[in-house]
Amino acid sequence: ARGIYVAVMLFELWGVTHVPTAWQSHPFAGGNNVNGIEADEDGDGAGRELHLLTGTPMGGRVRAAQEAYVRRVLETLRDCDNVLYEIGNEGGTYTLPWQEHMTAFIRRQQSMQPPRHLVGITWMFHRDADRTPHGDNASLLRCNADWISPGNDKTRPFDPNPPVVFPGKIIVADTDHMGWRSKRDEGWFWRQFCRGNHTLYLEWSYGTPAAGARSRAGMGQTVRWARTVNLAAMQPSTTIASTTWCLAAPGREYLVYQPASGAAFTVELAGAATTYAASWFFPGPDDSAPAPEVRGGEAREFTPPQAGSAVLHLRAKR
After folding, report:
1. At a CB cut-off of 8 Å and minimum separation 6, what does 245 contact?
2. What is the pLDDT of residue 244?
3. Cα 83 to Cα 29: distance, rounded to the nearest angstrom
4. Cα–Cα distance between 283 and 276 in angstroms, integer?
5. 190, 283 contact by CB (below 8 A)
6. Which one of 88, 147, 150, 306 is CB 3.0 to 4.6 Å from 170, fit for a cystine?
7. Whole-angstrom distance between the N-terminal and C-terminal Cα of the chain?
């Protein structure tokens, strides 16, 4: 009713991947269940076989139990709107084939019992020889998920300048995967929004609710503007505005973010000599100001009327 999406995380992957003692309390460890299931087939105390497609008889039993559990969750939430599924959080890159198996399983189940809820695979880690955790966005782009949460890999970092095109995937930019203790003001959310991305904010990472006030403000502002503009008709662009932060339906509507305080910028309005209604929005104080109408047909320069970051909205007059 409040327009909030709930992401149901189906499996806990982080602990088994990163915490040496996690397997001791895992329900799929033989001593912790009465079902005769021991997923740690090689007995190394890590239990990584739990998220591998081993092909062994025990692996088949593990998979059947996992799928039965997922099937029950899908049945329980089938009639709920605004539900997303996430296979698991920050597992190792070795889990990707298993995560894709689970994604395909969910799709098959939902094809028999619609409606379909979107399934996500999120940032995964591996460790180099120096034991430093790394991951890669290329694996996420190739995976079979509907939505993904990228991170900052060595070759294709995502924060603070996300690519304008991540083809074929819905992007949910999660602060957890991009330096979870890095404080982010309104601008981070505006940059993600102007690149066509959704956001997910790890609330507790700042220590106190007050410390994250500007992050929450940025999320709220971009949600409001998503409902103000004709978002479905707009595309992100790095070339239409000199700031590089722009959502545009050329000739019809533009939303431009200027992070540099009070700095002039240009917007390419070539084409039909359309007249645009214009307005300013200022993320810091969360207020607005009117602006004079603008005639299109060529590039135009704009200067925010006050200090701080600014957002320019242009909409063609009918």
Report:
1. 190, 191, 194, 195, 238, 256, 257, 258, 259
2. 97
3. 30
4. 22
5. yes
6. 147
7. 33
